[in-house]
Amino acid sequence: MSKIVKQEMMGMNGDTACAYAVKQCNPEVVAAYPITPQTIIVEVFSEYVANGEVTTEFIPVESEHSAMSTSIGAAAAGARAYTASASQGLALMYEMLYIASGLRLPIVMTCVNRALSAPINIHGDHSDAMGARDSGWLQLYCENSQEAYDTIIQAWRIAEHKDVLLPVMVNIDGFILSHTLENVSVIPDDAVKKFIGEKKIPVVKKPNGELTPYILHPDYPASIGAIDLQDYYFEHKRQQAEAMNNALKVIKEIGEEYGELTGRTYGLIDPYMMDDAEIAIIVMGSTAGTAKYVADLMRNKGVKAGVLRVRSFRPFPRDDIVKALKNIKACAVLDRSMSFGSYGGPLFTEIRSSFCYECDKPIIVNYYYGLGGRDAPPNLLDNVFNELKNIAETGKTGEEIRYLGLREGEKDAVNYKAELVSFKDLNTGKIGGK
Amino acid sequence: MNNIIEIRFHGRGGQGAWTATQLLAMSALEEGKYVQSFPSFGPERAGAPMMAFVRISDQPIKLHSDIYNPHSVVVLDPTLLTAVNVLDGIQSNGKLVVNSHESASTLKNSLKLKDQQELWTVPASDIAIEILGRDITSTAMIGALVKATGYVNLDSVLKQVQKRFSGAIAEKNIVLIKRSYEEAKKI
Fold first, then answer.
1. CA-CA-CA-CA torsion sign (A221, A225, A228, A233)
2. Does A337 touch chain B (CB under 8 A)?
3. Is residue B1 over pLDDT 50?
4. In terms of domains, do A250 and A275 share one?
5. CB contact under 8 A, B64 and A180
6. Pair A156, A305 in one domain
């Protein structure tokens, strides 16, 4: 225990916790464009810049597309680059996300998860990040502001690891974390500096067999992002897949090393009361905390309830999840986003397919919840545990795809069949109008 | 386990309800407690009714959801008493702390509290106008809440005010909070 570094307890919201961690990491470049609910990160960090607390080149870009383009340029030149976005901003970055990962640039970004328009909504759900789930970025989801702070610091080590070299997206729930002041224990600046270490440049092999640093540098002329057609594109994508696979090990290693420094250890998943659990909720982000709170209450009533929080969604820790759920009778996967037309939400489909070839598998049901920031209070999660208890006892699954906290009477809206009218009908005033 | 105090502040956009919850949360944090402070999330409009919340606990707070059944409710602006249901979801032994200079009987009649519920009042607007020269009651109402509940020590609040504000503003707010603490009374 003596190795654990002295820490200071601060009160910070999730956004400020991210900005504070970035300040301590002091990256060479931060390029960002403000968008609710990420705005506080940009505001607070630009204050650090104005006060001279960092040596970062802060670039207030004109759009998120430029924020990511700038980060890519900076990272390709060997700089540590950070940005933050949310929702429509992340959507506007979309094409550049693939370039960051395809070029294997270890950029760190906070995504303050927010619903996507339309209808316009500024609140927390995972739709934005899920839209980018196949972009080749690592995706880590935080439960609280403490984890947001801790994960930003770990993210550089994971991203820059020689076996990974991929960008990392640190996800925090919009408003629920971004705007909620909580206790955040911070480690000293020099401990952060020592932990993340000096930025190193990967060495790659040229076609002629010579070694060269992978960097935009006048002394080492090279093209980064050259055309790559039927001949090698596929191999490069295979390498990317391998790097993502390697990240499974690296995330754990860095999370453990961070634990030795701070007393807070992180991994790919975060099992809570899972050792003897019979029923479990599987969830990502801040709702995991509420689920743990409810699991405590269920335990007091003698119900063997557990929570499995998935921290790393990309890479997806298939083996760890299967192992954690092997003795579970029934579990509910909670999805805070929709893949329209899919049989179940993104987390559900991955967990279900993980069990495809397993002989022992739990009954798995899916709940959509919290879209557009709809609250997930304890009583709703209590309902989920009670329904799981019933499923475990009877062995009857019932509906596999369910909705949690959807307004009652919504059936009318779901069953509403729109009639079509022609422009001729409109001209003759058949429907409404003035 | 699970002994979490939940507090709701009612204010209008721009009156500093969120700031008040932050000051209160930071005061508790400095006392070694675990806290959360958050506003009612929505597009903020100056003058529109809004809410802000605090959780205080001796243990780390896992819960991340809205507050529905507060132990205490603080009302910064007396006009909110008729504009919104300030008693919504309040615990059956909850405490309502109101900025008002109305007579005790008028307030009691209009609010209809249950037997176990307590009503505390302080003429925070009057004191604020006297000391700050403006009707800003967010800090004053922390003083009244502390008197009514003892969730934190008054000194912890004053220390936070000194940290957050500087010079004359800090000094005036300290005088204001102390006055409000003294004048707050249970009806």
1. positive
2. no
3. no
4. no
5. yes
6. no
Q: How far is B128 from chain A (nearest CA, A)?
A: 27
Q: Taking the mean position of all CA atoms in its chain, how far away is CA A314?
A: 8
Interface test with A, best of B6, B61, B64, B157 (most A CBs within 10 A): B64
Say whether B65 and A181 touch across the interface (CB within 8 A).
no
List the single residue in A with minimal CA-CA distance to B68.
A377
Nearest residue to A73 (alpha-carbon basis) of A103, A47, A94? A103
Q: Please give the domain boundaries of chain B with CATH numbers for all domains.
A: 4-186 (3.40.920.10)
- Kindly state whether residues A76 and A220 are assigned to the same domain: yes
Same domain, A376 and A345: yes
The answer to the question of residue A421 being in a domain is no
What count of other Cβ atoms lies within 10 Å of the Cβ of residue A428?
10
ipTM: 0.95
CB A263 within 8 A of CB A354: no
Chain segment A135-173, per-residue pLDDT in tens: 999 999 999 999 999 999 999 999 999 999 999 999 999
Are A341 and A249 members of one domain?
Answer: no
Of chain A, the percentage scoring pLDDT greater than 90 comes to: 92
Q: What is the pTM of this model?
A: 0.96
Determine, yes or no, domain membership for A428: no
**What is the C-alpha separation between A14 and A376, in angstroms, rounded?**
18
- Chain B residue with CA closest to A272: the answer is B62
Strands A305-310 and A108-113: unpaired
Note whether A378 contacts B: Cβ–Cβ < 8 A: yes
Same domain for A135 and A13, yes or no, is: yes
Domains: count for chain A: 2
**The pLDDT of residue B129:** 96
Q: Which domain holds residue A404?
A: 269-415
Tell me whether residue A1 is in a domain: no
Q: Specify the DSSP element, H or E, that contains B98.
A: strand B95-99
Cβ neighbors of A68 (< 8 A, separation 6 or more) are: A31, A83, A93, A96, A97, A99, A100, A107
Of A143, A177, A182, the CB nearest to B35: A182
Chosen from A146, A179, A183 to mutate, greatest number of chain B CBs within 10 A: A183
Task: Looking at the structure, tell me whether residues A274 and A169 fall in a common domain.
Answer: no
- Give the end of a domain, one of A240, A262, A284: A262
pLDDT, tens digit (0-9, with 9 covering 90-100), for B73-97:
999 999 999 999 999 999 999 999 9
Q: Six-digit token pair at A141? A: 């989801």
Are A379 and A253 found together in one domain? no
Is A431 part of a structural domain of the chain? no
Which among A179, A289, A378 has CB closest to B41?
A: A179
